[in-house]
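Continued from yesterday's entry.
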Amino acid sequence: MPAYSRGTSTNIIVGAAALFVADSTLNTTTNTVPSFVSTESFKSTLSSDPDFTNVGYTMNGIELQFQPDFGEVQVDQVLDVAKLYKQGMQVNLATTFAEATLENLLLATAGQDSDLSGSKSTSAGQVLNLSAGDIGECPVERGIVAVGPGTGDCEDSGNVERVYIAYRALSIENVTVSAKRDEASMFEVSFRLLPDDLTATYGKIVDRTHTAS
C-alpha cells in the first residue's frame, strides 16, 4: 500500500499563457493547427506560422469558463428535485489585451480583416473602419490557441507546457476603448466558444514536453 502523501506540488500551475488567434476557424479534419515539434515550444511553432497572430501582452491571463445548464424533474413524493438532466452547455474564454493596437481591437470586436488597412508608419496612417455591418452578415469566427506553463516546478520541468486549443471562437461581449490619464488602454474581450461540426467538441487541452533548452 502506498504511503500517504499530502499532494504533488509539481502539479500546481502558476503563470500566464501566450495567446494566439488564427485567421480562420480550426478543426480536427484539416491541418489548420500546426503539428507539435518535439524540439521546440509550441509558442515558437505558432510564431513562425503566418496564419496565427500573437496578441502580445495580456492582463490577468486567460480564463476558461464552462457553464452547463441542467433541467429538473420534480415529483410529488420528494421535496427536492428527483432528477437532473443536462439540457445545454456554454463555454467562454476571457482575457484582456494589454497591447492597444488596432490589430488587437479588430480581433476584440470580431471585425472583418478588410476593415483594417494601411500602416501607422505612413502619413495616411493605419485605419480601422468601425463598420455597422449588414443584415444577414455572418459573424466572424476565429480559432484560438494559448500556450502556458504545464507545471509549477520550473527547475526540473521547464520544458513542460499546456496548450489550450479552441476551434471556433466569437467575440460577443462589449468592448471598451478608453484613453485615461491614470490607466493603460486595454481591451477586455470574452470569446464564446462553439463546438466543431464533425466531433461536437469545443477544442482540446494538451500537456506536452519539448526538448528545447
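--- second protein ---
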Amino acid sequence: MRRALDLDADSTVHVFHRLRTVDGVPFALETTYLPAALTPGILDASEGGSLWSLLRDRYGIDLSRSTAVLESIVLDDNSSAQLGVRPGSAGTLLTRRTLDTTGRAVEYARDIYRADRTSFEVTETLA
C-alpha cells in the first residue's frame, strides 16, 4: 500500500477499517490507507461520514481523480465471518487510488463487498 501511495518504506500510514451495514446487515469491509504526513490526527476523527469530505474540509486537500478497479473474488473465512455469509461465497474486491490536484496520491482503499447484496454505479466529480 505504501507503493500505491508513492511513499517511502519508512513512511507512516493511517489505516481505517470499517464494517458497512444496511438495515443492520453487513455488506462491506472497507480498509482505507492515508499518508500520515498529510493527515495528522485523522484517527481521532469521528468514524462516521465521508473521509473525502474530511480530507477536503479539515486538511485542505483538493481531490482530483479517483481510479477504482473491481474484481470478482471468493471470500476467505475471515471476510465471510465478518460479512455473515458462508466461507467461499462470491464477493467483489474494489481497489481505489485517489489523487489530489497536484497528482499526489492521498488515498488507497481496498474494499470487500458481498456479491449477493451489492451492485455498482460509479459517478465521481471530485473537483
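The first strand starts at residue 13 and ends at 22. The chain has a mean pLDDT of 91. Will compare against the first tomorrow.
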